[in-house]
Design a protein that fits this description.
The protein is mainly α and about 240 residues long. It has 10 helices and no strands. The radius of gyration is 22 Å and the shape is flat.
């Protein structure tokens, strides 16, 4: 489900209307179900991956809050980081480093067979991996309290507006907003809509237009001189900043 699609527009409007229709104490359920549905619309099976990462980081946060031993805290932090970064490495970087290792072995005529994994890269895996890791680190250093409500913590990790494109939200910024009771205000709704429209304009009109020229050059980089490649990189930088 792409952000600049009619499907997402209908989905967003439906979530918005239902959110203000349900009692405040149940709104986290709507946000969690909506966020998981949004992620499952891309690939159903990978929802278990984000759920597993959420469970591990949640439990590590609770364990950190329940111990005073520095050695135990370091062990818990190491465990959380190992699981989160291990999953990220497996899906995103394993084949890359395996290819480098194979090429290096081949230079020395070592009898090594190439090993690669046919894994589809999960959308947003870097964002939610580092968000869970950031949460555990904040709890470790005492910058944030361990969240007791698993459902609201799960919303914090999987919140669909920032799940697949970021930014990586800090604990003290987003989690309190999920936990507090909100009152509908027309001025806030108008301001939010204005920000969204401006963002869509920058994405669809400006960034997508620049990306066409960038992709065209990146497909055949050796067909262009240094000046063209330099301009291409400038366009690429601008499109990503937008």
């Amino acid at each position: 489900m792409s952000f600049n699609s009619i499907t997402f527009a209908v989905f967003l409007v439906a979530v918005f209307l239902i959110y203000w229709s349900v009692p405040p104490k149940h709104r986290w359920i709507l946000l969690l179900v909506s966020s998981y549905y949004f992620y499952m619309s891309w690939n159903t099976i990978y929802i278990f991956l984000i759920f597993f990462t959420t469970v591990i980081s949640y439990l590590c946060g609770r364990l950190l809050a329940g111990t005073q031993s520095k050695n135990k805290k370091k062990a818990i932090l190491f465990c959380s980081a190992s699981v989160s970064l291990g999953i990220l490495f497996l899906f995103k970087y394993f084949n890359f480093f395996a290819d480098i290792f194979f090429m290096g072995a081949r230079l020395f005529s070592l009898p090594v067979h190439p090993v690669t994994l046919s894994l589809l890269l999960p959308v947003g895996i870097s964002f939610y991996t580092f968000q869970t890791l950031s949460y555990v680190i904040d709890v470790y250093y005492g910058k944030a309290e361990a969240e007791k409500h698993f459902g609201k913590y799960a919303v914090f990790i999987a919140f669909f507006p920032q799940l697949v494109a970021g930014p990586i939200e800090r604990t003290e910024n987003l989690l309190p907003q999920i936990k507090e009771e909100h009152v509908f205000r027309y001025e806030d709704a108008v301001y939010g809509l204005r920000q969204m429209l401006w963002g869509f304009f920058k994405k669809i009109v400006i960034a997508d237009t620049l990306s066409y020229h960038v992709d065209f050059i990146y497909d055949t980089p050796f067909s262009y001189r240094g000046g063209g490649v330099f301009d291409c990189n400038i366009f690429f930088l601008h499109s990503n900043l937008l």
